[in-house]
Amino acid sequence: MSRLFSLILVIVFASEAVSALDFCVADLKGPQTPAGYTCKSPANVTVDDFVFSGLAKAGNTANLIKAAVTPAFDAQFPGVNGLGLSIARLDLAVGGVIPMHTHPGANELLVVTQGKILAGFISSANSVYYKTLNKGEVMLFPQGLLHFQINAAGVTSVAFVSFSSPNPGLQITDFAFFANDLPSKIVETTTFLDDAQVKKLKGVLGGTN
Amino acid sequence: MSRLFSLILVIVFASEAVSALDFCVADLKGPQTPAGYTCKSPANVTVDDFVFSGLAKAGNTANLIKAAVTPAFDAQFPGVNGLGLSIARLDLAVGGVIPMHTHPGANELLVVTQGKILAGFISSANSVYYKTLNKGEVMLFPQGLLHFQINAAGVTSVAFVSFSSPNPGLQITDFAFFANDLPSKIVETTTFLDDAQVKKLKGVLGGTN
Amino acid sequence: MSRLFSLILVIVFASEAVSALDFCVADLKGPQTPAGYTCKSPANVTVDDFVFSGLAKAGNTANLIKAAVTPAFDAQFPGVNGLGLSIARLDLAVGGVIPMHTHPGANELLVVTQGKILAGFISSANSVYYKTLNKGEVMLFPQGLLHFQINAAGVTSVAFVSFSSPNPGLQITDFAFFANDLPSKIVETTTFLDDAQVKKLKGVLGGTN
Amino acid sequence: MSRLFSLILVIVFASEAVSALDFCVADLKGPQTPAGYTCKSPANVTVDDFVFSGLAKAGNTANLIKAAVTPAFDAQFPGVNGLGLSIARLDLAVGGVIPMHTHPGANELLVVTQGKILAGFISSANSVYYKTLNKGEVMLFPQGLLHFQINAAGVTSVAFVSFSSPNPGLQITDFAFFANDLPSKIVETTTFLDDAQVKKLKGVLGGTN
Amino acid sequence: MSRLFSLILVIVFASEAVSALDFCVADLKGPQTPAGYTCKSPANVTVDDFVFSGLAKAGNTANLIKAAVTPAFDAQFPGVNGLGLSIARLDLAVGGVIPMHTHPGANELLVVTQGKILAGFISSANSVYYKTLNKGEVMLFPQGLLHFQINAAGVTSVAFVSFSSPNPGLQITDFAFFANDLPSKIVETTTFLDDAQVKKLKGVLGGTN
Amino acid sequence: MSRLFSLILVIVFASEAVSALDFCVADLKGPQTPAGYTCKSPANVTVDDFVFSGLAKAGNTANLIKAAVTPAFDAQFPGVNGLGLSIARLDLAVGGVIPMHTHPGANELLVVTQGKILAGFISSANSVYYKTLNKGEVMLFPQGLLHFQINAAGVTSVAFVSFSSPNPGLQITDFAFFANDLPSKIVETTTFLDDAQVKKLKGVLGGTN
Fold this sequence. Notes:
6 copies of one chain form a homohexamer.
Chain A: H1 2-12, H2 17-20, E1 32-33, E2 36-37, E3 51-52, E4 67-72, E5 86-92, E6 97-102, E7 108-114, E8 117-122, E9 128-133, E10 138-141, E11 147-151, E12 157-163, E13 171-172, H3 173-178, H4 184-191, H5 195-205
Antiparallel strand pairs in A: 1-2, 4-5, 5-12, 6-11, 6-13, 7-10, 7-12, 8-9, 8-11
Pfam families (chains A, B, C, D, E, F): Cupin_1 (PF00190)
Signal peptide (chains A, B, C, D, E, F): 1-20
InterPro entries (chains A, B, C, D, E, F): Cupin_1 (IPR006045), Germin (IPR001929), Germin_Mn-BS (IPR019780), RmlC-like_jellyroll (IPR014710), RmlC_Cupin_sf (IPR011051)
């Protein structure tokens, strides 16, 4: 029976290609496309392409925001390529904050696994939605909208955040305004911030012009 | 021949439904779905559902930003529902500016039809891309990224901006930070702006807390 | 300034519809569509539509599989509607197992938050990918492929699983074969299982015929 | 065991909604959306929603084109709603022809099940691809491109055509030009056809103006 | 006139790229992407890229399941690449059966062209939908759900099955469980099948461990 | 602070890949995929990839249709690759006409910026929708449907047309029927046009056979 079954198997799986689109592990050395990276040959794929260990330890929060974001996006975890999903770990030490930011390419779903986090987002209609989340609670942040997370516990808080894309992008407003060479004059004209404020934050964040 | 042809016609177009998905003009009184509004019955659709005259005249720029955005999104122009496209008109008087903002739901393509516009966007990598555009020049602003437009002419400038969604959304950073009841303390913690700066702009834009 | 700014605001946000597609919180009493539920009116949406507390406590594992799956899919957590994301919590007591199953509608990404889990999936090419995952490790399970999770620790293990759809579906193979009225004869013909085996499991799982 | 398993079952399938998106059988009396019809309640769905018998008998080819198209699109076969697939049957009597047409909403895949068919399409680059297909042969017609089928056998030919949409649409060029009230003057200006030719075909196909 | 028309033609079709996305015939030697294979140059495409003759003759049913599946997926029929469609031929000799399986990547639509077929599927809610189909009848099998086909005629039955993807995948449950090196212990723990049953089918299907 | 912030920046933007999918400027020398061209390395992208100047001047209307279409599709404007948008400029001299055509791959949105244009389309149900548009008025043309534009002013008219795809395709009916080697006999059989009419237009447009 086995041999005859196999005949069918041979017909149906005549090409490696048949199984390739079960998944498309990124070939990070290949070109990118609007739909993601080209695929590693299925013949070379192992279970380790589907497992990521980089979120097992805490990110380094010894910085001024007392927080760390550790991504498992396609560039770090090639298995997510083409699957419409990725994940990251947030570590927020006491006093830690993830500054106002957006993900241009994905919706986000956060689950607190340690501590308490004050999290919120602002809609296109400028409505504000925020709440303090306890361990095990989940919150959504729709694609492209400004949001933030602040540690609300007296201990380090941890969360895992899933995204609806293997490459959600990340635009931190302060970095976009102050950490590059966009002329201060343009920043001021388009944000109504005072010149002194712009210059101060450009100084802190390493921006020029 | 006509009668016999018509027999086929009757079979093929037996249901109004067949033609409905050529287009799906929004029934603005119906419920919305993740894919847009429910469709107006094709029997009630006329050419006027596909034509919008609201962009023919200039928006009112007699305001402090000396600029106006006139949208033809699904809520104003129900014909775009489900078609992955919409449009708006920008009027920028002398000194006019469209402040830093994002469209969470669409890419944007701007064409200048009068005057000159200095336009730019900032990528997730904090790179800045900006240029002064002359009449007839086109510029892209990818989805969810911060961007701005400033009149660069000594006269009123006008542009039409197309979007890759019937409802691109619009989040003006200043409005998101300062024009609602998000507590100043949270704004400051998540933006590193000074308290005085936050309070000043909350005052100007009508924010509270 | 505030008043004049607001004029623009009024033009741009003339319709509630503009902000609606930032998100589309499910109206669970409305009809479903191929793209999900119809949307609750944005005017009635509060932060609680974006927060889910049901995963904060452990599922009840006092059953023979010594395991529990607690979903936060659209039917439980209406905020995920239309966002291409959902989440569930797995609790695996000592000896616990999530039996072979598929999610017809989504890719899955698991992160272990307590204990150790032996997890694996089988591809269309019948290749097997499995590994024992420690706390903080992440594993992918591509859409529609058979997979399983087994507690590999001497204590209760916990994981959060994210999905690339608000409604991933769940088909447990044993339930599909043995927990309904599909005639034993058909089950045997299409699975090559022995009659005694089919009858035994139909008995255990409440199937008939 | 059955009872305890069922506990899980109850948790996981707590809502009818969970299974609903396995499929979304069209409620033809409900509204349409850009993604298709609203769904019939899963509780009322039976196997007959997934089976269509209307293609079992030949269409009536006693007409001047000696051909018939029998569709199983969403309006005829509500089970295809939301599934990205539909099907139709072509009957071509001796001398039969399906005139030049496009499907604005779907790619098409034809398989000949009786006789021989000369079929072809024209690309955007005006290249022509045509061939005579024998029984069992398959041909593709990309979305939106002009194509035709002509009986090439001395007997009736039959084919089944699948589409990549539950509602592919159908625009027969002759009907679009000549079977409505589009003024002859406009037809002539935009097609370069002679006035006599336009008037003749308007007459045959029942067009006016 | 021709020459002047051609001037426009030259402008509009200045690049080969314009016509490329009418279709994207797979370059099977190129890399794959999450959206399919890279495209063969349109200049090298001929009608034979859009025609497939491999389904014209019956598959070999001289095996124990007395059935054959002959696919025209992207790997066999490169023209379907990127078109969201593919097709296969089923041959079921007397007593033939296509065992329980899923297509992780596509919905399926079957049309019987010879004989009678008993076909069915099982939903996420464990409901069973099955029926005996006569020649010309059509049945749907939603993506990722277990389904089967059994010859119900005293003669060979034939069907064509269309899929909503150029690469639907195929996971035969018995092959996934018993035709690889997944340890028997894991199979038993995750399926509740008896050790003897698992060992027996592993023996038949060539599995190890 | 800057240095410590930068530590986070380094973690989050560890790979160039993270920012790549903000946009995917086409590498026109690379292969195409069903989702578009492969991406130019983000490191080599400049603002000029997002700006297109080719629509700033009028197309040459010194031809028999007295009209010109100047496209900014992906082949001309690589920045639109993957963004679901493109644009073109229409110039219609006095008496100018854009003949009946379809875009197989995109919806279209036209805005008149000079003069007056009589524009219309025909639905799958053969309904005609047409109107004379003034400067600043906008009209929609759904994907794949036949449409046309005719200058309705005593001066040159100009419009910008946006598309819901970086590569909408363009099939001009007359060119498809008469400007290639499709045999006259087939054209006549599938369009019901008279032999003299077909031969005449083949002559004008350079067709053969």
